[in-house]
Amino acid sequence: MIYIWQQSDWPNWRYDMERLATPLASTRHVQGRLLGRMEPLGFKLRDEAWLQTLTQDVVKTSEIEGERLDTEQVRSSIARRLGLDIGGALASVDRHVEGIVEIMLDATQRYAEPLTAERLFAWHGALFPTGRSGLSQIRVAAWRDDANGPMQVISGPIGREKVHYTAPPANQLASEMTAFLDWFEHSHQLEPVLKAGLAHLWFITLHPFDDGNGRIARAIGDMALARSEQCPQRFYSLSAKIQQERADYYNILERSQKSGLDVTEWLLWFLACLQRAIAQADATLSAILAKAKFWERFASAPMNERQIKVLNRLLDGFEGKLTTSKWAKLAKCSQDTAYRDILTLIELGSLVKADGGGRSTSYELAPSK
Question: 4-288 has which CATH code?
Answer without folding.
Answer: 1.10.3290.10
